[in-house]
Design a protein that fits this description.
The structure is a single chain. The protein is an alpha/beta fold. The strands form two sheets. A nine-stranded mixed beta sheet has the order 14-13-12-11-7-10-9-8-15. Strands 3-2-1-4-5-6 form a six-stranded parallel beta sheet, with helices on both faces. Helix 7 links the parallel strand 5 and strand 6. The protein is globular. The two termini are 38 Å apart. The N terminus is likely disordered.
Length: 380
């Protein structure tokens, strides 16, 4: 898919994936039929996972993040497991069911998705779709009686976030956003150092996150909601929020010149912005789809502390004015999903709820407003 895809065409692709999703669950099962004994074995294995008091997670959208990070992480989790998948692509359904021993009855497409409500194997739905589809599938999952994890950014607009939160509350189900770094030791140390004022009060912060390239739906404003700010810049917003433990009161922003205007027709290529916090604390931030950047740094009264790189899936490194941080590298996604499963089982709040995602979307929209107008935008 290239950036000529608009939301309608992408939804069409999801709904009618290769022309067969209208066949429903039974249609997919018949197309990918394996021997009865093999499918019975898969069903038995799923039952064994349930017997271990693990929650079943269904991944909605089998793109790169699901394939490369979430599915492998679910092989390491202690409190949840990969129970089902939702895809509009038959080849993926066949590949995943064989690789992860997923029973036919736990394979869904985008047309019969709502029937997941009748499947007791599925406790949690993890929405891993383009940003513009997060609200729809979170709400549908809640109406199906499932707990929900939604990838970041939570949605395109604050209004969508409100509807997502309300839908989950209405049926008494939990909603969490995929903020994996809240479970990563180096980033947790940044939270501790900043919020406990270990080096005194923070005076200023810097947060940069960029990648040298992008493609596909992320170049489509209707699907992505914007450019690198929505995809990688959100980590900067999160980083300065959890390092200070405070909320910004205003933002200023400036779009950087486009070096590839033919590619970035609909979204920004790069952006810099300031976030003002109480106490005259300023966070200087940058994000880009044409430059590799990865930093979270705080300068305080009695020293400094930083992560460089700060946001990748592995290889995070930290240092303070007193020396290097010595923490293990962990499977961030496994820890994130395990914590949510435990929160559900223990009936406690998740540390990364929908309200946190909503606040980020509110800040992102304020940054875009500041970028468009050139004005300082206050955040109520």
């Amino acid at each position: 898919m290239n950036n000529s895809y608009n939301r309608r065409r992408f939804l069409g692709k999801l709904t009618f994936g290769l022309g067969i999703t209208a066949l429903g669950t039974s249609g997919i099962s018949s197309l990918f039929a394996c021997s009865g004994s093999t499918n019975e074995k898969r069903t038995q294995q799923a039952g064994e996972q349930k017997a271990q008091d693990k929650l079943g997670i269904a991944l909605v959208g089998l793109g790169q993040y699901s394939e490369g990070e979430l599915a492998p992480a679910l092989q390491e989790t202690q409190h949840c497991y990969l129970a089902g998948i939702v895809t509009g692509t038959p080849d993926k359904a066949d590949k995943w069911k064989k690789k992860y021993n997923i029973p036919d009855k736990n394979i869904y497409n985008y047309q019969n998705f709502d029937t997941i409500k009748d499947n007791p194997d599925i406790d949690v739905v993890y929405v891993v779709l383009p940003n513009a589809l997060h609200a729809e599938y979170t709400i549908r999952a809640a109406k199906a009686g499932k707990h929900v994890i939604c990838e970041k950014p939570m949605a395109i607009t604050v209004e969508e976030c409100d509807r997502m939160i309300a839908a989950c509350k209405e049926v008494g189900k939990m909603l969490s956003i995929g903020y994996r770094l809240h479970f990563e030791p180096h980033n947790k140390e940044m939270m501790r150092l900043g919020q406990e004022k270990v080096f005194g009060a923070i005076k200023k912060l810097r947060a940069d996150n960029g990648t040298g390239s992008t493609e596909g739906w992320r170049l489509d404003k209707e699907l992505a909601g914007g450019g690198p700010l929505m995809e990688v810049g959100i980590y900067c917003v999160q980083g300065v929020r959890y390092t200070t433990g405070m909320e910004p009161i205003a933002v200023r922003a400036k779009e950087m010149p486009k070096t590839k205007p033919e590619l970035f027709k609909e979204v920004e290529e790069a952006l810099s912005w300031q976030m003002e916090f109480p106490g005259n604390i300023i966070a200087e931030c940058k994000t880009s789809y044409s430059e590799d950047m990865n930093l979270l740094r705080a300068d305080a009264e009695k020293g400094w502390f930083e992560l460089s790189p700060a946001y990748p899936y592995s290889g995070i490194k930290g240092e303070t004015s007193k020396g290097k941080m010595e923490f293990e590298q962990v499977n961030q996604q496994a820890r994130q999903m395990d914590d949510f499963a435990k929160a559900v089982k223990e009936n406690r709040a998740t540390p990364v709820p929908g309200e946190m995602g909503r606040q980020d979307v509110k800040i992102l929209q304020a940054i875009y407003q500041a970028m468009r107008t050139g004005q300082r935008v206050e955040i109520s």
